[in-house]
Amino acid sequence: MAMSTFSGSGLGVPASTANFTDTATGTYTGYKYLTLTSSGTVTIDRAGTCDMLIIGGGGSGGASGSGAGGGGAGGHLELTGVYLPAGTLTCVVGVGGAAISHGGGNNTSSGKNGVPSSVNGQYFSPGGGGGNTNTFTYNTTPSYANGGNNGGSGGGAAYGASGGVLTGGSGVSGLGFAGGNATSAGHGGGGGAGAVGGNGVAAPGTSGGAGKSSSITGSAVTRAGGGGPTAAGAGGSGGGGAGGSTATAGTANTGSGGGGGTATSGAGGSGVIIIRVVV
Fold first, then answer.
1. Burial of 1 by CB count in 10 Å (0-12 exposed, 13-18 middle, 19+ buried)?
2. What are the CA-CA distances from residue 50 to residues 137, 215, 267, 274 (Å)?
3. Partner of 72 for a Cys bridge, out of 66, 129, 201, 274, CB 3.0 to 4.6 A?
4. Banded model confidence at residue 135, pLDDT cuts 50, 70, 90
5. DSSP assignment, residue 226?
């Protein structure tokens, strides 16, 4: 599933500005914009170029009685001068990864990846990677470490005393950052669109990676923060969920990752699509 990250110049398409007929979410000097907080359509009556922000759904944190990593943010894809054809275009706003309950004892549940967001099947931004948990062999100690899931931004890794993968999940270059690594002191934070997730530290835990700012609506707004791991790790700026016994979800329509939980993890925040045209 290819992701378009190019400028509209030099593509052999008309240089005129696109126009949508849907009721604008807002206007400011020289522009109007449409914000989609759930999947739907946009009607383009004049083909041409526009600017877009597309953020995938955030990953959920892992859940384990002995700790888990935070979920990674969905990809933060900002495009300028890209072409949209005339017609009714389908827009998919990705949902966040579902919250997870570990079920007690030595049961563990890794976080779920968020769902990609897309516009007209042309422009895609991936969902964030789920935070991971340590695992136990035959429901007994010792535990083994697991790396975070890959995604737009990667999920945080979880530490286990008997070895295993300690690295956070990978992010997609230009769209997000890697999740934090696990250490003997703690679990990794989910990656954010603006920074890597923190590596594991002792309680109160590390933080999720910072989100990224966009001014597509006329004022700077930070979105797509990574989720914090267990031991009360803070979520990254831009809406990342905090880790804890019952972790918190990533903020809706920011694509932020959910926090890792010792009982229940935080769900990933849903994504968002914003289309801006010149008026």
1. exposed
2. 53, 15, 32, 10
3. 129
4. confident
5. P
Tell the residue number behind the tokens 């563990």, with chain if given.
Answer: 108
pLDDT the model gives residue 106 = 56
- Burial readout 214-245 (b: 16 or more C-beta within 10 A, e: otherwise): bebbeeebbbbbbbbbbbebbbbbbbbbbbbe
Q: Is pTM, for the whole model, over 0.90?
A: yes
| H-type alpha helices, 134-225 | none
> Please, what sign has the CA dihedral across residues 271, 211, 80, 279?
positive
Q: Please state the separation of Cα 78 from the chain's center in Å.
A: 14
Q: How confident is the model at residue 142 (pLDDT cuts 50, 70, 90)?
A: low
* Main-chain dihedrals φ then ψ at residue 265, nearest 5 degrees: -85, 170
